[in-house]
Each structure stands twice: as C-alpha cells, then as structure tokens.
Amino acid sequence: MKRLINTITGSLAPFATGLKSRKLVLCYHRFSSPGYTDAFPSPVSTTPAAELEKQIRWLASFADFVTLDTLASSKHNPRWQIAITIDDGYKDVLDLGMPLFEKHQVPVTWFIATKAVQDPKWIPWWDLSAWLGNQGKGKLNLNDSILNGEFDLSNKTQVGHICSTLRKRALSDTKQGLDNLVANIVTQLNIPANAFCRPTELKAAQTSSFLQLAPHTHSHPNLALLTAEQQRREFEESFKLLSSWEASPQNWLAYPFGKEWARNQETLKIVEELGFKGACTTNIDYASEQGNRYTIPRISIDGRWDLQTFKSRVVFAPLKNRLKKRFN
Are residues 115 and 153 in the same domain? Predict the structure, then answer.
C-alpha cells in the first residue's frame, strides 16, 4: 500500500512543483556503485550513484541548486531552491557522489564528523553494527551491564541484541558507556579501518568549486546527553581540526542525528555564541529565510527509495508533516 501511495503522489509531484515555489534542504550520507567495496554497508543511508543522478536530473527540471547561504537569504524566487548537504565524511562521497554533483554543477555542503577522519581505527557505532551484521562467524566475550557473557556472531538474534544495545547506549546513555562498549568489541575483532576520508583527501577536495566543508561535531554524540561545556568542545574541536587540515570550513553546522531529542535549548545558544551562521536539523519541513537559522529543516534521503518515492517524499513529506502537527 505504501508503495502504491508513493507511486500516485510521485506522479502528482510535477503538478505540485508548479503551483508554488519552495525551498528545501536535502541530506545525503553515503553513495554506492556496483563493484565499489564497502565494509560497512547501510542500505538506508547509502544512495546508489545511478539513483542519485536520476534525482539530480529530476530536481533540475523545476529547481535551482543553491548554497546554504543563498537559500537562507534569498527572497521571491520564481523557481524552487534546493540546497544539497551531506553528513559524516565518508570517502565514497568523493569517489562516487562529487563526480556527479560536479558534472551537473550542483553546490554541496559536506558536514564532517572529524574524529572518524582523524582516527582510522575509530569505528562509529552504526558502522560497527553494520559490520557485525555481515560477519556471520566469530565469538565475543562482553562484560557490560546489558551485554554480559559470550555472544555468537553467527546467531542473528544475539547479533541483533548487540546492535540494539549499541543504539540504546548512543541515544540514551552516557558517552563514556558507549565508548567503553565499542572499545570492548573492537579490541576482540579484526575490523578494517573506517570508511571515512583522511585529512589529506579533505584538503585536496577543496579544489572543487562546488564543494564546501563544515563541522558535524567531533565525535557525533547525542548532544542532549552532554553538558554545555562538552557540547561547546564538540563544535570547537570539529571546526579547529578542519581548519588545521586546510579544509576551509564554513560557519555552518549540522547537528548529529538531527532530531529534537538529540539537542536542547542550550545547544542553540552555544551554536549562536560561537558565531555559526546557522545549523541544520533533520526535522522535515520546507526551509524559509524567515525561519530560525539554528533549526533549519532537512529531508534525509533514504537509499532504498526509487525515483517515484523520492519525488513523493521530497515534494509532499513537508506538507504532510505540517498537516500532522496541525491536527495532532
């Protein structure tokens, strides 16, 4: 039923885009292509390069691709305006995504989680979950308040329990608790280097006139679980490292996870005090020059969407979300 609805609403998208111009910020994470090696596969966050090009061509039929600066300040636009953002810092962005964005002259703001770039051995918990889910063999001995004993990696139920605990720790526990669990797992397994860019690659990427880099915090934490001083350090360290790598960071920010539960009012104050022009969320809505620059909405792109679903979600999801809020 959901596929049918997406097909129908997707077919209505060309009509809807002609009624009223809007502003949108899209959020990608990773890209894939047949034969491209990925030790940490995630279908949800990884858009096939072939689908990305279809999406770009369709968007270009009714919209102008603009930077965040232009989108935040321009008024009275006859066409839709769309700003493309990418989160995290994976190398496949340079290998597979940027060639297409450059080909179609699409400006991109790339938000970098600097700890993963700085340390190839640091594995984000979501990538660790992806890696564990694809192993199918091996043993783990864990001494955690939730995970205690020996775990068989060929047992999908046990692997699922490990992965759900990693997520729980990340979203609702102390940062130290998550770091300890990840370190315990990583030290027992032969896990490859993370799939992020290295500092020299970010510096070299600055030769592209269509790419701007910006902070995505240092270690991608749930900001709501941190003190004000810890949050400030996350923002400052990310910007400082990007600068030291000669990556010319912009004064824009993307919050980790992007949702309201992963930040607080203290977060917004700190970001403004540090002089950022604005910050991106993953709240679903149209963007506006009159909106709060420190809670800019974005639509996260699901790598499993076909083109019709993409059309439906991009054009109608913000409207659906507004109606849902109004009648709830």
Answer: no
